[in-house]
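Sample intake sheet
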Amino acid sequence: MALRSAPVLLLALVAVALWEGCVGAFSHSLKYFVTSISEPSQGLPHYVIVGHVDGQVFSSYDSNSRKMQPRVSWMEKVGKEDPQYWDRNTQMAREEEEVFTRDLVIARTRYNQSKGLHTWQRMVGCELRGDGSKGAFQQYGYDGRTFLTFDKETLTWVAPDPQARITQRKWDALPGYNQRRKAYLEDVCIKWLEKHLSYGKETLLRTDPPEVTLSRKIEVEDGMETQICRLEGFYPREIEASWTRDGEVWLQDTLRGSVAPNADGTYHYWLSIQIDPKERGRYRCHVEHDGLPKPLDVALKEPKSNLGLIIGCVVAGLVLLGVIVGILVFLKRHQDGHRAVPTSEEGSNSSSQGSNQVI
């Protein structure tokens, strides 16, 4: 389906990057996302390259600036070690821009779409996983759908749509083309990933442990309660978290959020579970992360009793009532006494009258 507006296009580009970043469990990754747009608007470039290391944008190129540029301070080290690095990559990006523009026109023709906003994308990258294994991928997409995927084990391209099979047969038939793709993914890409990790080790190789907090919400209808375990401010992105009951992982009635980035480069995550409050003591939020010296098992806290608060409020209310009654009694007595005492004028008259009567 064609994208119809610039904001939707931006969301699509972000969604692709986030989706790729969430696939697989690995320690470090190098990925490039390349996009060509048929009808850019509102100042958007028609061609963009964005490079990511561990989800962090480190370099980019677009058809407006026509320059490959660093996006993080630690990439300045590359230019010092290799003064031609940025010029060389700029030239390659310009050449690829022309190829991508032609490819987009061909893809539109294949799908009989001569007008409208359309995208042609390439996603390529490699991984160094936590268990020491390596991974890699390369695929092309048209309008957000998979067009071609490279299988480096069989050295062939996989085409899900009939429109892509023409390209599949063409690339599979090119002498040495698929072998070069595999060599890049398994060798060149991994070496550059290791270089980037050495350049940005202060940022990319740090470990910030998660801050774990628990909160609860009572369901009025059935008396059940929802417990939420929140994990904040951790890095790197990989984290293992689960609810356990009696020491065993408990998946029933469990919901999970997505690991999402914070503005400072760290990540946050949450998972919830619905339980019977009477069984609260059986549950724990179990967390494993590189920033923790050992796994955490955070117990659910029993809610504090309100009895003391209630008693305190009752006593305070009785004291306040006593004070009010005392003030009212005092005011009433003061008022009655005030009425019983004559004024000086009335006393003079009564005294003279009384004296006359006595004489």
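Comment: Residues 1-26, 305-311, 340-359 have pLDDT under 50 and may be disordered. Residues 45 and 65 are 9 Å apart (CA to CA).
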